[in-house]
Write a structure and sequence with these properties.
Length: 279
């Protein structure tokens, strides 16, 4: 009976997933300028329950959630499958072999490769019958495990178990969780994981130095200011620069250019007197 309940629920979910009605079958175009590229392997179902297409569903939901952070470009599942086929690898092979996962990640030019599994899935149904109507409260619990490999370093960057629960009332008499609630259940678990993943990755990145405002002036004024071969404007001008050494060229028609290496620091003043060119 329990297997029949799970089967009924997941057959409907799988059909809608395959048809694209849940918005999961095709990953949308991702952010124009994401910071990281990630490849996601279909999740393994370790729950012991018959849940058709749950691994693909988790893959698609996670891809959408990562996209919505505006920090990740997600490798298309078809591209991942093509590379794996060329190298005679299976999804389970990537999960079980860290070296294979890293190899595929590099071939895809990905920064991170995500593997995961559905660790547990439980569904509880409470029935109440009154006036000839059977009302059911369906409670579903899921626990998802996610691992994130850093393709560049070969190290495990992040790992987490995230549980989630959803409830619904059903008056149809059939103990099936709706497809919308099923997607909500996956989203709850994966959203918590994505939030922590983004925080972890951002914390691990080196902080960019604060800009130093450097003031440039010349005699005569109105001279063009180029820094590291990039034109910024005419003197007098203040330019925010990364701290450190920069090449500066200050030039004006009829005058010899002034070229120096400077060290940019907050509040620094660079002033020069231009000499007229010899006739």
């Amino acid at each position: 009976m329990r297997k029949a309940r799970y089967l009924g629920m997941w057959v409907i979910f799988s059909a809608l997933l395959a048809a694209g009605w849940l918005g999961l079958a095709a990953v949308p175009n991702y952010a124009e300028s994401p910071q990281y590229t990630v490849a996601i392997v279909d999740f393994n179902n370790l729950s012991g329950k018959y849940l058709p297409n749950i691994g693909t569903a988790a893959n698609e939901v996670l891809g959408t959630l990562l996209y919505q952070t505006d920090k990740f470009a997600v490798v298309e599942r078809a591209k991942l499958a093509s590379i794996m086929e060329e190298h005679h690898l299976s999804m389970s092979g990537l999960v079980n072999s860290e070296s294979s996962a890293l190899q595929i990640g590099k071939l895809l030019s990905a920064d991170y490769l995500v593997t995961g599994s559905i660790v547990s899935y439980e569904q509880n149904v409470q029935r109440v019958q009154a006036y000839g109507i059977t009302t059911e409260q369906i409670t579903a619990d899921i626990t998802v495990n996610i691992k994130v490999l850093n393709v560049n370093t070969g190290k495990l960057e992040f790992a987490i178990f995230t549980p989630a629960q959803t409830k619904m009332l059903n008056t149809s008499g059939a103990a099936n969780l709706s497809t919308g609630n099923t997607r909500e259940l996956l989203s709850k678990a994966l959203t918590a994981a994505v939030d922590k993943l983004v925080t972890r990755i951002e914390a691990s990145q080196p902080k960019l130095p604060e800009k130093a405002l450097v003031h440039f002036d010349s005699n005569p004024s109105g001279a063009e200011v180029e820094i590291d071969q990039v034109y910024y404007g005419n003197t007098p001008i203040a330019v925010p620069l990364n701290p450190g050494v920069h090449e500066v060229r200050i030039s004006l028609a009829g005058y010899a250019p002034w070229i120096r290496m400077i060290h940019a620091a907050e509040g620094a003043i660079v002033s020069c007197t231009l000499e007229k060119k010899a006739k």
